[in-house]
Amino acid sequence: MHTACFIDGAFVPARDGRTFAVRNPATDAIVAQVAEGGAGDARAAVDAAARAFPAWKSLAAIERARHLRRIAELMHRDAERLADLCSQECGKPLAEARTEVSYAASFLEWYAEEGKRVYGETIPASDPAKRLLVLRRPCGVAAAITPWNFPIAMVTRKMGPALAAGCTQVVKPAEQTPLSALAIAALAGEAGLPAGVLNVVPGTDAPAIASAFLDTLHVRHVSFTGSTEVGRILLRQSAEQVVRMSLELGGHAPFIVFDDADLDAAVAGAMASKFRNAGQTCVCANRFLVQRGVHDAFVDRLTAAVAALKVGDGRAAGTQIGPLIDDAGLRKAEAHVADARALGARATTGGARAAVAGCADRFMQPTVLVGVTPAMRCFREETFGPVAPVCAFDHEADALRIANDTPYGLAAYVFTRDGARIVRMTEELQYGIVGVNDALPATAQAPFGGVKHSGLGREGGRQGIEEYLDLRYVSWRVG
Ligand code: SIN
């Protein structure tokens, strides 16, 4: 297990020699002591990335692709070890962690190919003696600040496009989950990635590390996945060096089920969307809007499926719902349930903490709440826990109004068989991602990101690499 900072191709201790403990949220056991990187380490990482940039950007795209593919191959080779590490540090069930490893590798595989298609343009000039060209050039060092809920995939979702574009990168992984990012760095070293192209600075003082990243002209792009609150701080800080930002921030996804929906598909989708990673994903359904005609049938089926979920240590066989990441996460989910009940909602299953033998007190029973109204906290704020609040609606226009009545706009889901309604909903929902009869839309090939307070920019798809490219217009007088 690698626990030191990864700077300039080598694992090195933090400059001041300090370390911090990474704990398994299921058991509170210490998984490892990890280097406590700070501003000095972050600056060293940026310097290394800046030194590596000229050679890396000059490599043929096909060579950069070879490196990315090789790292992906090593990830597949070590999938079981990476999944176990991921489950230990973020608590997610092993089966989900295994899926995350291949999802994570897919960003390297996709961008290995996409990097070969960074095409320029020629523009017909009005002066026949001129040739007008548009080149797309890597922007410089890219900084990535990644979250704990997908400790592997959120690193590679930023690393794939950055490295494929010809940028070098510095990564600050979430303090809860630095080990997965360091494991990727080790595989990058094994794959022969040149020193300095990828650097990882773990640490608990995120503001100090982020400020060091933002305090230099070398860093020309910052990609952050996390809360809207922190995204705003970074956006303000980015003004000083005028740095481009991609922000993937909070979500508050509506999951809308119409009377004409395939109810089996809607319930299966609800389970996949809401309960993946114990409800701790930015795109997970945060509120269910169910048309009155199918409301009771939907709630009955959802309740039965949720009541059957197995809660436990992510590494234990058969676990489907792991712990919340920390005590604050558990308290927030509990507070949302308590608030909803106080205002008249009822739990059809769950609604309390779950005791898991031999584990920490950090588990929530998967919960379904009915009789939920827009006045309740769970209907206005992101819960980030295994709580499914259900609210009945009568007309399509009501569903649309309630769904859009939020400053967030990351993902929305619609379950219906009516083609005309699908057109109306996909055009009118104010969200960056709309899943139509599909609860798991995220994939390396498509642009992932939100509108309004959910963020800026896109990750994934051909759009994802654009974030790392500057346009350079060349006006060439040939005669
Ligand atoms: C996220 O929660 O931000 C990522 C979810 C995903 O990629 O599916």
Outline the secondary-structure elements.
Layout: E1 5-7, E2 10-12, E3 19-23, E4 30-35, H1 39-58, H2 61-77, H3 79-90, H4 94-114, E5 121-123, E6 130-138, E7 141-145, H5 153-165, E8 168-172, H6 178-190, E9 198-200, H7 206-214, E10 219-225, H8 228-241, E11 244-248, E12 253-257, H9 263-275, E13 285-291, H10 292-307, H11 327-342, E14 346-349, E15 367-370, E16 387-393, H12 396-404, E17 408-409, E18 411-415, H13 419-428, E19 433-436, E20 451-452, E21 455-456, H14 461-466, E22 469-477
Parallel strand pairs: 7-8, 7-10, 8-9, 10-11, 12-13, 12-18, 13-16, 15-16, 18-19
Antiparallel strand pairs: 1-2, 3-4, 5-6, 6-22, 11-21, 14-15, 17-20
Helix pairs in contact: 1-7, 2-4, 2-5, 2-6, 3-4, 3-6, 4-5, 9-10
Total helical elements:
14
The CATH topology of the largest domain is what? Aldehyde Dehydrogenase, Chain A, domain 1
Q: Which small molecules are bound? A: succinic acid
DSSP strand content: 15-25%
Structure in words:
This protein is α/β, with parallel strands linked by helices. The protein has 2 domains: 5-249 and 454-477, Aldehyde Dehydrogenase, Chain A, domain 1, CATH 3.40.605.10; 253-443, Aldehyde Dehydrogenase, Chain A, domain 2, CATH 3.40.309. The chain contains 14 helices and 22 strands. It has helices spanning 39-58, 61-77, 79-90, 94-114, 153-165, 178-190, 206-214, 228-241, 263-275, 292-307, 327-342, 396-404, 419-428, 461-466; strands spanning 5-7, 10-12, 19-23, 30-35, 121-123, 130-138, 141-145, 168-172, 198-200, 219-225, 244-248, 253-257, 285-291, 346-349, 367-370, 387-393, 408-409, 411-415, 433-436, 451-452, 455-456, 469-477. It has a 7-stranded mixed sheet, with helices on both faces. Strands 9-8-7-10-11-21 form a 6-stranded mixed sheet, sandwiched between helices. Helix 6 links the parallel strand 8 and strand 9. Helix 3 (79-90) packs across helix 4 (94-114). The longest helix is centred in the first third of the chain and has 21 residues, at 94-114. It is globular, with a radius of gyration of 23 Å. The chain starts with a strand and ends with a strand. 54% of the residues are buried. The structure holds succinic acid.
